[in-house]
């Protein structure tokens, strides 16, 4: 669809920015398939999708605040705290842990949203502070140690195969993601979240309670992270105390590189999906060709700066036109 629109509208900067993530995705796949042929095998692609599953839900959660021009820096720490709190009270896994992890995620997101709205502080500050709170909870309950979960039924949630050859974690992530795509694209809540990011003052003049939808956006973020923590714990066979750390950086890159504006008002979950696949494919390919994690981090840092710069081009042009 994006490529079709590009040819219809002509090769302009804004249109090229729109399709760039798709071009990068195809380009990365082709490059690594040439450098390391086993990269393109079904087994490796399934592995990429498996790794992407938890990542996708966390990134989808992050997308909602960003669409409003806010940000949630606590998603990685929240991921660990949801898993640790649930496993602390239900070390054998099971339904109790699943429900508690999701509830903790929901409440964490709700608290983030309430603090942003009630304290009238930038979301950057609030969620940065809450990141340390969630890290303190996760490491404080276990002194920084992971909690092992030995339960075959619980492990089956992610590692089993309802469809032969496809791990359950991929299926559950796809189902949850599809539900939230529907919410973001087909419901009033989703449309208002995007509208507020585009022009909050205009939405307020329509008599819409923008604070309500800001709280909802952060609550969605927490809820998705809570669900992701269940899938991650089930897949690993443990509740990780600090594994959530790496998710924040990758999540921000995926959302922005996918095409969601850091300023809010444009983008969406489907674009985040492209960003997640792009980053997961890049990490996998770099590992297969023997690249170190340091080199990968440097490359992703450069990619993040480049992506934000490209996304900001239309805003800069708008300012220049206004000043002329």
Automatic annotation (TrEMBL):
One Pfam annotation, family name? BPD_transp_2
The record's principal subcellular location, in a coarse class, is membrane
Query: What Gene Ontology terms describe where this protein resides (cellular component)?
Result: plasma membrane
UniProt keyword Transmembrane, yes or no: yes
What InterPro entries does the record tag this protein with?
ABC_transp_permease
Q: Which keywords label this protein?
A: Cell inner membrane, Cell membrane, Membrane, Transmembrane, Transmembrane helix, Transport
Location(s) in or outside the cell: Cell membrane
How is this protein positioned relative to the membrane?
Multi-pass membrane protein
Provide the coiled-coil residue spans. none
Record field: transmembrane: 20-39, 45-64, 96-117, 124-145, 165-183, 215-235, 247-265
| CDD domains referenced in this protein's UniProt entry, alphabetically | TM_PBP1_transp_AraH_like
Q: Which GO terms describe its molecular function?
A: transmembrane transporter activity
What name appears for this protein in its UniProt entry? Answer: Autoinducer 2 import system permease protein LsrD
